[in-house]
Design a protein that fits this description.
With 105 residues, the protein is mainly β. It has a single domain, classed as Rieske Iron-sulfur Protein (3-layer Sandwich). 0% of the residues lie in helices and 52% in strands. It is built from no helices and ten strands. The chain has a six-stranded antiparallel beta sheet with strand order 1-10-9-4-3-2, with no helix packed on it. The structure holds FE2/S2 (inorganic) cluster. FE2/S2 (inorganic) cluster (FES) binds next to loops.
Length: 105
C-alpha cells in the first residue's frame, strides 16, 4: 500500500508522556510521546465522538475521557470497554527533529 508522508511538528513540541492533537491533511490525529517514542492514531475515539488527545495516558494505554474506554496506543487495539473497534494507527518517523506521519495515499 502506498503512503504519503506528512510533516507534523518539531519533536520537542511533544512533551514526554503526553498527547497532542494536530490537523494533518484534513484529518485530526493524536500524537503521543511515550517515553520518547512517537506514535500517531486517529484522534476520535471509535466508540463515540470524543477526542483522545483530551484523554489520559497510562503507560502505552490511552483512556478516553468520555466513557473511559481504552486503547493500546502502539497497536490501536481496544483494551478497555466499552471500546471494541480498533483505532487507526499511523507509522511515524522523526527526521532531524521533525515528526512525520505516514497515511495511506
Ligand atoms: Fe470514547 Fe465512549 S467515546 S469510550
Amino acid at each position: 500500500m502506498s503512503e504519503t508522508c506528512h510533516r507534523v511538528c518539531q519533536q520537542q513540541e511533544l512533551a514526554t508522556n503526553s498527547i497532542q492533537q494536530f490537523e494533518v491533511d484534513g484529518k485530526t490525529v493524536a500524537l503521543y510521546n511515550i517515553e520518547g517514542a512517537i506514535y500517531a492514531t486517529d484522534d476520535t475515539c471509535t466508540h463515540g465522538l470524543s477526542s483522545l488527545s483530551k484523554g489520559e495516558l497510562d503507560g502505552d494505554v490511552v483512556e478516553c475521557n468520555l466513557h473511559f474506554g481504552a486503547f493500546h496506543v502502539p497497536s490501536g487495539k481496544p483494551v478497555g470497554a466499552p471500546c471494541s473497534v480498533a483505532l487507526q494507527t499511523y507509522r511515524t518517523e522523526v527526521r532531524d527533529g521533525v515528526v512525520h506521519i505516514f497515511r495511506p495515499a
